[in-house]
Structure formats: C-alpha cells, structure tokens
Amino acid sequence: ATPTAVMVGTGVGAQYGILIKGGKALETAHKTSAVLFDKTGTITTGKMAVTSHKILVSESEMADSKFLELVSIAETSSEHPIAKAIVQYCQYRLDNLTPPTTSNSNSNNNGRSEEIIFPTNKLKEMAKDFKAIPGRGLECIVDGCKVMIGNLSYINENGINQQDDHLSKQILELESNGATVVYVVVDDKLVGYVSVSDLPRQDSARAIELLHSIGIKCFMVTGDNCRTAKYIASRVGIPESNIFSQVAPKEKADKVKQLQDMGHTVCFVGDGINDSPALSQADVGVSIADTGTDIAIESSSIILLKNSLCDVYQSIHLSRIVFRRIR
Ligand code: ADP
Ligand code: MG
C-alpha cells in the first residue's frame, strides 16, 4: 500500500470511531487469523450487579446485617469491578432499598439502573491490612477478624473446603447460568457467598458472527471459572474448545503466545490492567474505550471509541481493503 492509502485508511477508521495508532497496526490487522477476547468488560459490559447472597451459618453466628457490613467494609478497598458491585448491593440492602440490577442495553444510564453514591471513606478506614490478590480475591482485618473474599481456588489454597454437596449443587447452578460466585470466609470459616453477574454487550454475538464469516477463529480468556466462562461463550457463539478459563492475570499473555506458536496472527481484545501484557504480546492489541483502563489503552494499537466489538471486524476489514487491493 502507498503511504497515501495508509493515511486514507487511518482517516476512514477515525471517522468511524476506530483509532489506529500508525500504519504498522493497520497493516498487521489484515493478517489476523485469530481473535482472543477477554471476557469481563470486553465481551461483557463489565457492569456487574449482585444477584443474590447467602449466609451459610446460623443467624446467631452471623446476622444478615453483620454479613453485609463485613463484606462491604472489606470490598471498599478493592478496585475490582466485582467489588464495586458488591459494595453497592450491600449498602442498598443495609438501607432496605432494592439494589440495582444489571442490564446490557445502551440506553439507560450506562446499562445500569439507577445508582446511589454511598460515602465509603468511613468504611475504608474500618478495614486494616488490606491485600488484593490478583485473579483471586482479597484479604483484610475487620473488627479484629480475618476476612477473605474470593473464588474457590483462593479459599481452597487457604485450606478452606467447601464439601457440602447441597452447597456445591447450588453454586454449580448459579455458575452455569453465568454468575460468578465469591466466597466469604471469616476467621478461616466459610460463612457465606455472594453471586455476581454481568451480561454480554448487545452486539458481541454479532461481532463474533461477522468474524467467523470471514474465516477468523474466535477465542475467549478469563480468570473466571469454567462454568461461567462456558455460559458467556455460548451466549456469543464462541466454541467451547476455544475457551481459556481460570487463567491467572500473568498468564493471559502466554495464551496469546500459544496461539502465535500455532501459526496464528493474533489480535487480542481487552480492557483491564491485567490485559496489558497480552495486548503487547499480540500482533494487534485492541482496547475498548468505555471499560478500557489507561494502561490497556496505552498497550493497544487500536482503540474502539464506539465500544462495539463489531469494530474489531471493521478494523480487519478496513485493513484488508487498504493492504490487499492497493498493492
Ligand atoms: P477477569 O479476567 O475475568 O477480568 P480477574 O482475573 O480479574 O477476572 O478475577 C478473577 C476472579 O477473582 C474473579 O472472577 C473473582 O472470582 C475473583 N476476585 C478478584 N477480585 C475480587 C474481589 N475484590 N472480591 C471477590 N472476588 C474477587
Ligand atoms: Mg476484563
């Protein structure tokens, strides 16, 4: 392609809200044979909402209000999108209000129903020795009690077992319906769980259909468990064999490498701080403007301003026009 064609290509991209950082990115995009999508905040809206919570010990051991209080104090210091949803939910419940629900429509207030701002400064001070464990959960001290909140791998690693068959069945059911379940452990005892969910963006399924139509293979990677991952993948048309679940933040880039070693030119689409090594490792790194963290956007060569995964297809299509026709 001539320099003029490249300039016209990036110009057309910009007109459609596809920001391409330089000619090299536009060129590489036309060779893409596999697209690896991050799940949370990329395929899904990232606007999580708690769907339910359950206390697994007696009322005298842990009253509902005590549980909600403990959990919101612990999660206030976390930056994870799950934490924000949990804090909101607990505060609504403590005030006897109906918590917001999740939605993937673009119209109503960024996809979440009405949201009240709660003053959380005071809660934050009540948690001591806070530690975030990436891809796992958190740990802190509240009221002299050791609180751990996170996924199954996290609590298992800390020697907490959840062996009740009835409970396992409940959780399996929630996860198979797309929820992410996090466990609440106080002083090394499992006291309850919180179920959080997040829906695919409205046009994610269409985007994957478009990519498949031009012979591109689509994959998904997530730190989340396999059942939740499977549910979201099935909703958007990603084959079960193309899911990488329970992937530690540090290992997302290895999955990109794995696909490259299979001979693929890989486009990685992500949003989180966790995603930046994978975005750099990929032949083409793409991030979405709305959920994209600064570091993810910085590590990307293409930024989608309209927040639609269909623009991954558009980017490749544009690159194909510039680099295949005019040579
Ligand atoms: P993803 O790759 O899907 O964006 P992460 O790697 O960030 O997910 O997190 C993986 C899992 O770790 C979450 O699904 C959740 O179970 C657990 N987790 C992380 N942070 C928290 C937190 N603050 N509270 C509860 N669970 C958490
Ligand atoms: Mg993400």
TrEMBL record:
Q: Which domain of life is it from?
A: Eukaryota
Tell me what this protein is called: P-type Cu(+) transporter
Annotated source species? Cavenderia fasciculata
Give the family this protein belongs to, as stated in its UniProt record: Belongs to the cation transport ATPase (P-type) (TC 3.A.3) family. Type IB subfamily.
Localization in the cell: Membrane
